[in-house]
């Protein structure tokens, strides 16, 4: 079983791999989220149940942890790069 490591314990190659995975997750989740938002907004106006628009807006809160993780990975990569120089 793979052991979860703190970002500061990962090597440069492992961080690059995590960065690629993170970007892939962000892109795929962003596409799914965009489709869900379009469908929810369409249904809210079609059925005149405008609360569905609130659900669509709240989907952005789910995206925040993924984005924060990506920022942390980028910061750790910059930190490793500055240590090399």
Automatic annotation (TrEMBL):
Transmembrane regions listed in the UniProt entry: 23-44, 50-68
Entry keywords, A to Z: Membrane, Transmembrane, Transmembrane helix
Descriptive protein name: Redox-active disulfide protein 2
Species this protein is from: Sphingobacterium detergens
